[in-house]
């Protein structure tokens, strides 16, 4: 069975973005970007992989990405209809029109049922790109968390997951700190 990994950047107070989807306040240094681009090359958007010469690099962690409509739309707004061309892309939305890309599947039915089907298939891991509502719906299906905790307090914004009160435990597997003050925390679901 494949793992679903929620890989996300958050502020110290737990927000993935500002109230209007702002993310430009996260401090990213060239050294930090290099590490993430190397260790997590699979989840770099296709145009970023191409710019770095890695578009033909083999996948090592993930072969599928799932996301909500609001995570997908920014790419589409700039004319990119398949932002992760190297990954199978599944977009969950009840109001979004299919972009007509062979690699992009738009699902308007139950995200939990579709993710369970994906997890039962053979292959590499599944990357949950966001957002908060989808992460909340899929919380019980998330096997791993990779949290980039940035040294910023936002005050308000979009939480890491929108979910009714239901404490869910994860075990800390690894902690690493970087030159920009970011700490990357890796967790696995406590069973």
Automatic annotation (TrEMBL):
<dbReference type="InterPro" id="IPR050765">
    <property type="entry name" value="Riboflavin_Biosynth_HTPR"/>
</dbReference>
<protein>
    <submittedName>
        <fullName>Dihydrofolate reductase</fullName>
    </submittedName>
</protein>
<dbReference type="InterPro" id="IPR002734">
    <property type="entry name" value="RibDG_C"/>
</dbReference>
<dbReference type="Pfam" id="PF01872">
    <property type="entry name" value="RibD_C"/>
</dbReference>
<feature type="domain" description="Bacterial bifunctional deaminase-reductase C-terminal">
    <location>
        <begin position="61"/>
        <end position="183"/>
    </location>
</feature>
<dbReference type="InterPro" id="IPR024072">
    <property type="entry name" value="DHFR-like_dom_sf"/>
</dbReference>
């Amino acid at each position: 069975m494949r793992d679903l990994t929620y890989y996300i950047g958050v502020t110290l107070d737990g927000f993935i973005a500002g109230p209007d989807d702002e993310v430009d306040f996260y401090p990213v240094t060239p050294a930090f970007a290099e590490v993430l681009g190397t260790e997590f090359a699979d989840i770099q958007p296709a145009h970023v992989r191409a710019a770095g010469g890695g578009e033909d690099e083999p996948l090592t962690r993930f072969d599928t990405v799932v996301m909500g409509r609001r995570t997908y739309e920014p790419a589409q707004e700039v004319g990119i209809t398949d932002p992760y061309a190297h990954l199978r892309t599944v977009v969950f939305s009840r109001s979004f029109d299919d972009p007509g890309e062979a690699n992009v599947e738009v699902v308007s039915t139950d995200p939990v049922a579709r993710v369970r089907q994906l997890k039962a298939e053979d292959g590499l891991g599944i990357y949950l790109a966001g957002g908060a509502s989808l992460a909340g719906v899929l919380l019980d299906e998330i096997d791993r968390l990779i949290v980039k905790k940035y040294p910023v307090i936002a005050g308000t914004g979009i939480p890491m997951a929108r979910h009714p009160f239901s404490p869910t435990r994860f075990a800390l597997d690894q902690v690493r700190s970087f030159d920009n003050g970011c700490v990357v925390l890796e967790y696995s679901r406590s069973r």
